[in-house]
Amino acid sequence: MTRSHGHDLDTRARRLLRTLIAQYLADGEPVGSRTLSRSSGLDVSPATIRNIMADLEDAGLVASPHTSAGRVPTPRGLRLFVDSLIELQPLPRDEMVRLKRELPPGPTTTRDLLGNVSTLLSAMTHFAGVVTVPRQGDFPLRHIDFVPLPDARVLVILVFSDNQVQNRIVQLARPLDGRELEQAANYLNTHFAGLRVDDIRAHLLRELREAGSELNRLVASATELAAASFAPQGDAEDVLVSGQTNLMGYAELADLDRLRELFEAFQKKNELLQLMEVCARAPGVRLFIGEESGFAALDGCSVVTASYGVQGRVLGAVGVIGPTRMAYERVIPVVQATAGLLSDALNRAATSL
């Protein structure tokens, strides 16, 4: 997470701001000077507290709702709180055990695993859980088979390292019999299992250019099949969302127009996917509070994400979307631990090739 700037507050101001935000996150109500005087543990007069609160308000860190004499933190104040006023702790052991227990231990497709992660994040935080689904071509190939069809067509069966199976029908320039297809499949499986589709295609096309007419019939057939089978399919990234209805229970998001705009964003996914792709490109935890996300539909929400990947390659991001009034010190470790466990599961699948 990025560090905030311009928060050169003295010790008393920082302590009062921390106390105010913690109280607000706990009950959602504006916090008055008397409450701060009792809760902060500072030996200062109510007048001093009011003066410090006025300074914090001038700095844009707190605001006074017109319906109350108390104050609430602004998104800028929450950003300062998260970046420098709380100490994040590792996820408690019992919650880590729950995460490990509820993630599927056995073989499963990546999409099924990610759907489970999205649901689990929602259940553990009571917010909306979000997970990006990478392109299938980002996963290594485990096995390939060819089945002859009429009119020089071939059914291609691709099995990826995440147990996902794709069937494609390709058109060849000339028909190949079952024996030729079997030989080509054996060649590709022997030499290229464990590589990504894009890498296999690039390698074979490079061999084709370098060898020219000297390629033997087997390699030529395998190259033709691979070029057709691994052609880009436009399998764009997707994002899975679980627990959207949880957000209807928070007063901060109860406005019908706001909810409608938020749910439309979940349904269309375009803006959400853009945001998650930005998060995936950065290591560690990313946090957007309110308008920091740049998307109007997420104003009034906080987005907490962490990237996941396999064998050192980032594949996407997991996270939660909830109101800005969330228990950041708990939510951030949950998201961070989930991303780590997901990466571990994907790495185990990759090493089983």
Automatic annotation (TrEMBL):
Record GO biological process: negative regulation of DNA-templated transcription
Transcription regulation in keyword set: yes
UniProt keyword terms in alphabetical order: Repressor, Stress response, Transcription, Transcription regulation
A single GO molecular function term of this UniProt record: DNA binding
Pfam entry (one): HrcA
SUPFAM superfamilies: GAF domain-like, Winged helix' DNA-binding domain
Heat-inducible transcription repressor HrcA C-terminal domain ranges (all copies): 112-332
Top-rank taxon: Bacteria
Family: Belongs to the HrcA family.
Function: Negative regulator of class I heat shock genes (grpE-dnaK-dnaJ and groELS operons). Prevents heat-shock induction of these operons.
Entry protein name: Heat-inducible transcription repressor HrcA
